[in-house]
Amino acid sequence: MVAKRGAIVVTGGTGTLGRQVVRRLLEDEHEVRVLSRHPHPRADRTPREWAVGDLATGEGLDAALEGADVVVHCASAPAKDDRVTTGHLLEAARRGTRPHLVYISIVGVDRVPLRYYGRKLACERLVEESGLPWTTLRATQFHDLVAGLTTAQRLLPVVFTLGGEVRLQPVEVREVGERLAELAVGEPAGRVPDLGGPQIRTLRELTGLTVRARGWHRPVVPLRLPGKVIGAVRAGGLLTPEHADGRGTFEEFLAARGAMR
């Protein structure tokens, strides 16, 4: 990797994905600035390593992006409107140094009619039309998220999953973070190839693997749900078989994380 002259700002830098991006960039000795709504709890952190700004209101973003060469936009929340937060970020970027904007999206945002996916797709378009240099990567679901669907049911006497051909292609979040870091120090590339996990498995299989890894002895109950969203998923809407470039398997994730105990 070739070092950039200015800072690389990472939104959502304390989240599951953002931490991996920050880790890799720091390993490669880049100047990284984490954008957060809150001051860092350690007083010895300098402003260049930690910037306070609120994507929801836009407050503090101009100062947070000062001197930025690249912004990696990992902040996202299904319960909020990413179009608003992304819009505020883009406005601040245009007022400032006009950095390279690297955006992380999700495989299937244009095929699966979830409201959250629709907002992510709209954010892709905002980035594309921003007038800034940009790169967008779509990734499949993280191992953490898929396993979490099961572990969230730890207090139930049975474990529910989706039956039928509900197929996923989970990917290791560390690999997605490394790919984003690579894109951040490269030239703007527009929409780059998707990043999917190495295997396509049914959700029922993945649920069973998680149950066994945790040592649970309880039945797995498959549910068949109707609707356009499930129909789109059954049709392969969350898959990118031509880009199964991830290396870490779901079983390896479970073994490494202790089944998320």
Radius of gyration: 19 Å
Number of helices: 9
Main pleated-sheet profile: 7 strands, parallel
Low-confidence stretches: none
CATH class of the domain at 7-139 and 173-191: Alpha Beta
- Principal-axes geometry comes out as globular
Order of helices and strands: EHEEHEHEHEHEEHEEHEHH
User: How many strands appear in the DSSP assignment?
Assistant: 11
At CATH level 3, the topology of the domain at 7-139 and 173-191 is Rossmann fold
CATH level 4 superfamily of the domain at 7-139 and 173-191? NAD(P)-binding Rossmann-like Domain
Structure classification? alpha/beta
Q: Please tell me the overall pLDDT.
A: 92
Strand content: 15-25%
State the CATH architecture of the domain at 7-139 and 173-191. 3-Layer(aba) Sandwich
Termini, distance in Å? Answer: 36 Å
What does this structure look like?
The protein has 261 residues and is α/β, with parallel strands linked by helices. It has a domain at 7-139 and 173-191: 3-Layer(aba) Sandwich (Rossmann fold), CATH 3.40.50.720. It has 9 helices and 11 strands. The chain has helices at residues 16-27, 61-64, 82-95, 115-128, 143-151, 173-184, 203-214, 228-234, 250-257, and strands at 7-11, 32-36, 50-52, 68-73, 100-106, 134-139, 159-162, 167-168, 190-191, 201-202, 220-223. The strands form 3 sheets. It has a 7-stranded parallel sheet with strand order 3-2-1-4-5-6-9, sandwiched between helices. Strands 7-11 form a two-stranded parallel ribbon. Strands 8-10 form a two-stranded antiparallel sheet. Strand 4 (68-73), helix 3 and strand 5 form a beta-alpha-beta unit. Helix 3 (82-95) runs parallel beside helix 4 and helix 5 packs across helix 7 (203-214). The longest helix is centred in the middle third of the chain and has 14 residues, at 82-95. The model has no long low-confidence stretch (mean pLDDT 92). One of its GO terms (molecular function) is protein-containing complex binding. This is Nucleotide-diphosphate-sugar epimerase. Residues 12-144 form the NAD(P)-binding domain.
